[in-house]
Amino acid sequence: MLKYIVRRLLMLIPVLLGVILVVFTLMYITPGDPVDSLLGDNATPEAREALREELGLNGGYFQRFYNYITRLLRGDMGICYATNLNVATRIAQTFPNTVKLATFAVVFAVILGLSFGVISAIKQYSFLDNLVMSVSMIGVSMPSFWCGLLLMLLFCVQLNWLPASGFDSFACVILPGVSLGLNSAASIARMTRSSMLEVIRQDYISTARAKGQSEFRVIMDHALKNALIPVITTVGMQFGLLLGGAVLIESIFSIPGVGKMMVDAIKARNYPIVQGGVLVIALAFCLVNLVVDILYAYVDPRIRSQYK
Amino acid sequence: MNGDKLLEIKNLTVHYESFDATVHAVENLNLSLRHGETLGLVGETGAGKTTTVKSVMRILPDPPAKIVSGEILFDGQDLLKLSVKEMRKIRGKQISMIFQDPMTSLNPVMTVAEQIAEVIRLHEKCSKKDAHKKACDMLELVGIRPERGSDYPHQFSGGMKQRVVIAMALACNPRFLIADEPTTALDVTIQAQVLELMKRLKAQYQTAMIMITHDLGIVADICDYVAIMYAGEVVEYGTREHIFNHTGHPYTRGLFACIPDIFTDQNELEPINGLTPDPTQLPEGCRFHPRCPHATERCAKEHPENIELAPGHFVACHLANKGGNENA
Ligand SMILES: Nc1ncnc2c1ncn2[C@@H]1O[C@H](COP(=O)(O)OP(=O)(O)OP(=O)(O)O)[C@@H](O)[C@H]1O
Ligand code: SF4
Ligand SMILES: [Mg+2]
Question: Could you say which of A272, A275, B46, B245 has the lowest number of CB atoms within 10 Å?
Fold first, then answer.
């Protein structure tokens, strides 16, 4: 198992290099000049040229990529144009907020999705099942930013129960977290339901019943653990979508997270921040998927024996 | 109530109901079994054998399955009237079941010892450790090294899995064991070993048993009584000797025709032509008439009653009492 983890961690290197290359290239070919937003329209050509030189924006593509990589390898992610802070410092300021938001959303989605998925499956074709499946259909198709706006209108503007922006108390996490997690909750509920339905038909469930085990334990001990295997995949994939959604949700709710930082940075052509942000999100995504694969092995002994 | 009967199924009718059709899986079925005896339940695929025994355990999937009518008396007590909780005390403790396919009847994410210990813990007041110890003893009893208890089902072969299932079924010393084709999924040499094991344990524990099988060789080997099922009904019931030597029903004779005649001295065998009827649209009259070589007009209209050919030997066929069909 340990060997497997080490191998997976080593595989991160080419993946992250690829991410860096893609983002760097994208930023290189996007029109626009960071100097515009830094100096304003009235700056003299000389001043602009001096600044370009200072920011290292002047060489060709390969020259600049080489410079970026070599500095990155030394642990230097560059300087944020807007604040003159180290990119690493900026990420350290914003990343915890994104983690908080994403964790809340995932926990919310998993709890909601699993419970409704299980209930739906054991009460297949009941009114409740139909209701859950209809609501989750809407949930899957509703973009999280739109859902966020609606929730904000209802709970912040109409009812005035929760704060619409900021990120200084737990109450601030609820609304963006829920908006972000709803989509995933719906997907997880649908996946859990179909996976449970599949498992419940299996002979070993009848075996468990034939032992005299109670229905509750049959579902919790025998069915759910088996049904979780495909659900874990869904959760892993949802996490990627969720990080994408976080960029939008953070902007809507003005949460000082990596997502909002990146959106602002893209507008201002603040290249080092964009690159640093993408890098850290890609890293987070890869690590979460590693955790997902380890969870697999934990749940399913057949996979565990393959990892040895 | 007949005192020495362990199990008595009376007029059991089970349907599978879906939106557009009703499967008449079991119709008006009667069976009985005494303490310590073995009954072979034989019939083609889809005859309703599994449905019958799952009704006894009350583990039919509901929906779609509905027990429409009937009584299932176990020790004189109607199982169908018991509360869920009372029924749970009987399952695994008084009545155990071995399922058709050992490959799928073990939970893939639990160790085999855990799975055996589970049934022990449910029915016997004992610590987790004692249950585990007993589970390992059971493994030893069925010929598996106890250390393998901490392995998962995927690490076992089919025959070993079926041994585990047997260990699990016998762990609480049940008085009645239902074995649903316990060897069909196994290859021939393993089949013989598993059967041998079951015979030995059955003798050792005096367990009564219903053995479902397609294999008349197995019936000849271990069953005291035989019930032949066709399209949800028992068409012939009697002692093994009677069924083998004085076969009464044309369908049963057809079944014998499917195997080389080492068990019968019949010289005129009648292989069964055609297919089992669609269980949503069963034929009128005798359900076997479209395939029966002796069918008359009456067979197509009138459902045959059970006729007692000899004491304890029942046949549901219009021709049975004429005695003419036995050497027809
Ligand atoms: N869950 C179900 N839903 C609908 N119909 C079912 C269901 N289970 C069984 N049936 C039908 O009920 C009838 C009897 O099935 P059953 O499983 O009892 O047959 P069987 O005699 O055990 O056959 P086999 O030898 O193949 O195991 C069949 O026609 C089958 O199609
Ligand atoms: S009742 Fe008629 S059709 Fe049915 S088995 Fe007897 S002879 Fe054949
Ligand atoms: Mg069956």
Answer: B245
Number of helical (H) and strand (E) elements in chain A, helices listed first: 14, 0
Q: Which distant-in-sequence residues (6+ apart) come within 8 Å of B300 by Cβ?
A: B283, B284, B285, B286, B289
Structure tokens at B240: 């093994």
Quick one: angle between helices A225-252 and A170-200, nearest 10?
A: 150
- Chain A CB contacts of B110 under 8 Å are 222
Mutate to test the pocket of ligand 1, among B13, B42, B50, B57 (most ligand atoms within 8 A of CB): B50
Q: Is B25 in the pocket of ligand 1 (CB under 6 A)?
A: yes
10 Å CB burial of residue B315 (0-12, 13-18, 19+) is buried
What average pLDDT does this structure show over A158-169? Answer: 80
Say yes or no for a CB contact (<8 Å) between B122 and A211. yes
Number of residues written out for chain B: 328
DSSP string, A7-44: HHHHHHHHHHHHHHHHHHHHHHHS---HHHHHH-TT--
Residues belonging to chain A with any Cβ–Cβ distance to chain B shorter than 8 Å: 125, 201-204, 206-215, 222, 225-226, 299-302, 305
Q: How far is A223 from chain B (nearest CA, A)?
A: 9
* Ligand nearest the Cα atom of residue B249: 2
Query: In angstroms, how far apart are the furthest CA atoms of chain A?
Result: 86
CA dist A189 and A136 (Å) reads 7
Give B101's contacts in chain A (Cβ within 8 Å): 203
Question: Over 80: is that where the pLDDT of A168 sits?
Answer: no
The minimum CA-CA distance between B324 and chain A, rounded to whole Å, is 45
Nearest-angstrom CA–CA distance, A222 and A200: 9
Whether residue A111 has pLDDT greater than 70: yes
Lowest mean pLDDT among A155-169, A175-189, B137-151, B218-232: A155-169
Give Cα separations from A92 to A235, A252, B63 (angstroms): 26, 21, 55
Q: Which residues of A touch B119 (CB under 8 A)?
A: 211-212
Is a pLDDT exceeding 90 seen at residue B40?
yes
Cross-chain Cβ contact A203/B99 below 8 Å: yes
Looking at A27-36, A184-193, A215-224, which range is the least confident one? A27-36
Rounded Cα distance between A147 and B111, Å, is 45
Residue B267 has pLDDT above 70, yes or no: no
Q: Which ligand is in closest contact with the Cα of B316?
A: 2
ipTM of the complex: 0.84
**Cα–Cα distance, A224 to B261 (Å, whole number):** 50
pLDDT of the residue at B268:
52
Specify the DSSP element, H or E, that contains A86.
Answer: none
Q: How far is the CA of B90 from the centre of ligand 2 (A)?
A: 39
pTM over 0.90: no
Contact B309, B325 (CB under 8 A): no
Length of chain A: 308
